[in-house]
Write a structure and sequence with these properties.
alpha+beta; two-stranded antiparallel sheet; 3 helices; 7 strands; about 20% helix; globular
Length: about 110
């Protein structure tokens, strides 16, 4: 089992189907019922936890501090996508509003 300290981009990219720069790069490992890629790791306290693959990859590339209290929006609307070009950090309030049905959408 992986530990938080052993996570590396080289390892994680092995689990991603990297295609063209504008295409979705889908996570090939385990997925949550929501469709998001996930991986099981052992945290610093020795407890097994699940992490969202796209958030771990984003954090390793851009730093985790930028994600504190934010969500990563998939502009492609494809939950298993890990292509950093498709991910946009935003507040949870903005993200929920973005996914709220707009007036006239059901017409």
């Amino acid at each position: 089992m992986l530990s938080l300290n052993s996570l590396s981009l080289d390892y994680l990219w092995l689990w991603v189907d990297c295609r063209g720069p504008d295409e979705c790069w889908e996570w090939l490992g385990e997925r949550h019922k929501s469709g998001h890629g996930r991986l099981k790791v052992v945290n610093h306290a020795g407890k097994e936890i699940y992490l969202q693959a796209h958030r771990v990859i984003w954090g390793l590339v851009h730093g985790r501090k930028g994600l504190k209290s934010k969500t990563l929006h998939h502009e492609c609307e494809n939950p298993p996508c890990c292509n950093l070009r498709h991910l946009q950090p935003m507040t949870k309030v903005v993200h929920v509003d973005l996914h709220r049905p707009k007036e006239g959408d059901n017409e």
